[in-house]
Amino acid sequence: MAYEGIIEENTKQREIQFRNFAAAAGFSEEIVIEAMKTRFAKPWPELTASQKRGRLLSEQFLACYNKTSEGEMKYQRVAWRSLFMPTEILYAMDLMPFTGEMAAAQLAMSGLSVARLETAEGSGFSPDLCSFIKTCAGATLEDIFPSPDIIFTTSHLCDPAAKFATYVSRKYGRPEFVLDIPYGVWGCGSQDIEMKKIDEAVDYVAGQIENMVEFITAHTGVKLEEARLREVIDWTNQARKWFKLGNDVTYDKGSIATVKRGSKDLDYAANLMQTWGTREIIDVYETRYHEFMACENRMKSSSKPRIVWGHLRPYYKNDILDYIEEKADIVASQVNFIFWDELDPNDPFRSIARKTILNPAYCPLQYRIDLYTREIQRGDGIIAFYPKSCRHFHSGARMEAEALKKAGIPMLTIDGDCIDNRGDDFLVLKTRIDRFLKSLSAVHPIERGETFKPTSPPSGSEPGDDEQNRVMYSPVR
Amino acid sequence: MDRPKIGWFCTYTPLEIIDAAGLTPYGIREDSGKAHEDVYLGDSVCSYVHSCLGGALSGAYDFLDGVVIAHSCECMRRLYDAWMFKQEEIKPKRVFFLDVPRVKSEPAMHFFAKQIERFKEEMEACYGEISRTSLINAINTSNRTRELIARLNETRKKDYPPITGTEVAQLIKKGMAAPGDRFNQELEELLAGLNGRSGDMDRPRVLVYAGPAYGRLIESVEEAGGIVVCEHMCNGLRQFGKTVERDDDPILELSRRYLEKPPCPRMIGEHSMEGLFDLKRLVDEFKVDGIIYCSVKFCSNMQAGWPLFKEELQAGVPIKFLEGDMEAGINEREVQSFIKKLARRR
Fold it and tell me: For residue B30, what are the contacts with CB-CB under 8 A and spacing of at least 6?
């Protein structure tokens, strides 16, 4: 189909899809639009960092249905992306990312995910599959998500997401582009081999990004302007700087969680976010940093155990986080970890490739364990909320816990689900949390600020590499 | 004297490198029966991987010198992790890791060629230099196997196939553990015996789309009155489809062959759709009456691939979805009722 035909089809379809979305939430289209206008009434500068982030994401969500925050119609090119797909090229080419997994989390927060899960399961999506993807599948089958102009997926971390992208492509009849990401670039060989592997992988992925740009141009007619890409990359770099500064405050300078709830910070899920490359996100992260700094003066000394959170949180209504935070402070999280160096505006494809490849969640388990042991402060414990439907994280939990235990880092794995609350059993969980936090209190504060040394250097690295690696790979900051 | 054996798990492993290094590739396909020994990988990993790790921990693969673990999917990534984690308790000490792209494209072929080259270097570090001649010879041996299997499959396209799916499965299982030239000799003898022969089996003809060897699935189909004429499985077309081209750059040609062969559900994007469309051709050529899509439980790629498979494959024949555990097996009643249904349609 010619691109003009796609625009025409999407324009009609998104009107229907928006009505469907409103109906699924139990409202009329008009009520939803009015609610949005009310929500957007407060001036941006008066918002908290979290509210700004929410506003930005809501505006992006509405834009995917061709709606502006004023309720006007405006056609928007939409690119469905899987969670680990970099966004800078998309923004530079005027494509609005629509991240299915993020929309699924939103549905779970609104109590709308279970019906979508049931739709998907009734249509052949196995109950064992990732519930983020199943929710997206249900929403696609019910036609409540905005139809895409183009679809992007990466091959890393999540197998079902990559398979689902092809399903979406066929369902809507839209072109799909796959970014194939090499695995095992680190942690599977000596340092020389590791460096060689990283170079090979960067070359391979950078070449694909170049092809991706051509693919977008071929399918939408949009050409990449170098100046625009530089601007987007600069925005990513600025946002990265502020977010990282904020992380340093929460983790290093003490327990911000005594003033601000650490669980709220999990919602930034910064390294998964679709907002890298927007101008607004700089302000969001800068505001977050200033909020943390303002808290510094009000911080009480906390004797609660400190928790580093692994993976995401449950998005449906639940008592788990409230309960944990009564007894412990969540001071850092895996999803807020800024693992990449600044992007180089003079070498954009290679630096985006590097950022994408070096995601520390996508490496052999031992490497992840080494990162934890190297960075986590003595006395801190890890709570990992691993969905049972996630082969990538859940299946490594036992080994991770055993290895960390040997290193003196307590870890509690919660076999949960971020989206699907049908098997939720808080009372059973509560007992395990109590036991864990009690054991943590017993080992708690020894010497604040002291980090563990790795039990063994990461495969391939030499003693003395720590400092260099820490800059790039710090797992918690 | 028997050559040392290197175990492999995934059909994207270039066996020619192992053969050229003077070793025998050993395909770990059978159910080790020791899946319960693996208590490390949690209960959301597929039973094939549990079986492999449980087997390794309980000594089922002690006769191997090492293994090569290809990065096929989420579960295989964790097999590598667990193998390394429990390495002190596992006898085969040498562990080779091979990354494999998930798309078929020119850049992917070149990237994979580099991974194969590295795998070759790692093998050389352990077992001595692999000469160009030995690599070419290994490619020729593997190609010969593929040609012979293709000839065998041709006989199964006949109205009355001279060989059952169960017999083919047994043959391939034996071949997985044997040196290539010995397996080729056996195949040649078998083909000579089949020459001109015709079966007498007017039965519903079934194509099985599945992962690695799946317990009694093929026997169940045939005991229920059907005949399996084609296996789009890890020990069927995905292993033997497509030969390696002879070229100046054998490593690149190996890479090309492995990424262009009939795709495993692990492949994504356009290539996975090509595989799906190619099934229509197979249905016609093998005169298939019905397809069994058998997913190992917790195989994300098979499970997530099913909705697309059932919606997009317009093959004009019934498709049965089965799901099960490698050790616990499949529900044979479901197989029986499907075969009865196919028989009624004939």
Answer: B173, B213
- pTM, entire model: 0.93
> CB of B286 within 8 A of CB of B204?
no
Does pLDDT of A448 surpass 90?
Answer: no
Is residue A163 within 8 angstroms of chain B, CB to CB? yes
Q: CA-CA distance, A225 to A223, in Å (whole number)?
A: 6
- Amino acid code (one letter) for A395: S
Residue of B82, B298, B304 lying closest to A164 (CB–CB):
B304
Residues of A in contact with B321 (CB under 8 A): 124
Q: Which of A165, A191, A223 is the last residue before a domain boundary?
A: A223
Q: Which domains does chain B have, with CATH numbers?
A: 5-132 (3.40.50.11890)
ipTM: 0.95
Q: What CATH number did the domain enclosing A63 receive?
A: 3.40.50.11890
Q: Which residues have C-beta within 8 Å of that of residue A22, sequence separation ≥ 6?
A: A28, A29, A31, A32
Any bridge partners for residue A73, and if so which? A67
Give the domain range for residue A185. 3-223
Looking at residue A237, which CATH number applies to its domain? Answer: 3.40.50.11900
Structure tokens at A108: 């779970």
Reported as a single tens digit per residue, the pLDDT across B16-67 is: 999 999 999 999 987 888 888 888 998 889 999 999 999 999 999 999 999 9
Q: What is the pLDDT of residues B289-323, one digit of tens each?
A: 999 999 999 999 999 999 999 999 988 999 999 99
Question: How do residues A54-94 score in pLDDT, each as one tens digit?
Answer: 999 999 999 999 999 887 899 999 999 999 999 999 999 99
Which residues in chain B are contacts of A398 at CB distance < 8 A?
39-42
A168, A286: one domain: no
Q: Are residues A199 and A240 in the same domain?
A: no
